[in-house]
Design brief:
Elements: H1 2-16, H2 23-28, E1 34-41, E2 45-46, H3 50-59, E3 64-66, E4 74-75, E5 80-87, H4 88-118, E6 125-127, H5 137-146, E7 160-162, H6 164-170, H7 173-183, E8 189-193, H8 196-203, E9 209-213, H9 217-227, E10 232-236, H10 244-248, E11 254-256, H11 259-262, E12 269-275
Parallel strand pairs: 6-11, 7-8, 8-9, 9-10, 10-11
Antiparallel strand pairs: 1-5, 1-12, 2-4, 3-5
Amino acid sequence: MNEQLDALIALAIAEDLAGGDDITSTATIPADQMSTAEFVSRKPGVIAGIDVALRVLQSVGITDIDTPVHDGQTVEAGTVILVARGGTRKLLLAERTALNFLTHLSGIATETQTWVRAVAGTHCQIRDTRKTTPGWRLLEKAAVRAGGGTNHRLSLSDAALIKDNHVVAAGGVLKAFELVREKYPDTEIEVEVDNLDQLREVLIGMPDLILLDNMSPQLCHEAVVIVGGRVKLEASGGITIESARDYATTGVDFLAIGALTHSAKALDIGLDLTMGM
C-alpha cells in the first residue's frame, strides 16, 4: 500500500505544480521563512487519514510533526489533530493535498460511525462495498474501520459474490453457486438473492453468506427464520439511516451500505498557520 499511496500523493502534488511552481507562495513568502501549521477540525466527527497526511507532509520535506489525535478518535470542533513545523512554502504546498485526504477519509469514518450507532445493541455489523473512489479503495476501507464498520472484499479475487447477472449467465442461482464452488472450492462464496424462493434454492448448497437484495425488513426477518443460523445473512439495497435499525433487528448479520464511501460528506478540517516554530 505504501508504494501505491506514494504514487497517489505524487500525482496530487504534481497536479498542484502542473505549471512548475506555486506562484503565489513564491511571490509572497521568503524562501527561508518558517511556520507552524495546525490542522484543526471545524466540525465534530471521527478522524481518519492521519498517516496519509503525515506521508503527504513528509513527501515535501516536512518532518517535524506531532499527531495528538489518532485514526478512529472522535473529536469536537476546534480540536487540533496534527501539528507540522517547517518551511512556510512547503507547508502550503502540502496543505490542500493533506486536507483532501483528511477531510474525505474523516467524512467516511464519521458517516460510518453514524450507521454503527444506528444499529447499536444488535449483533448486526455495518459493512462497506466496492463503491469506492478509484485508487482510494484501501484508504476508504480503512476509514470505514476507523468509524467502527467492517470491510467487504477488497477485490474480485478475495471472495466470490454471485450477483443477478452471474445468475442469468449461468442459468440459475444454484447452478451459478455450484460452478463457483467447483472451480474455487476453498474460496468464501456469497450469493445474492432477490426473493425467498431463490434463498431456499441456494440454501441447498450452503454458501458462506447470502445477500438479501432490496428486501423489506419483513422479508429479511422471514429469511432469518428460514435460514435458522445455518449461514450468515447480509441485507443490501434501499436501506436508509432511518430504516437501518429496522433491518438490524430482523437478525441479519450485516448491512451493506454503499453510501459509506460513495456519498459521505467531507469532514470540515482546516489549516491554521502561525509564523515561527
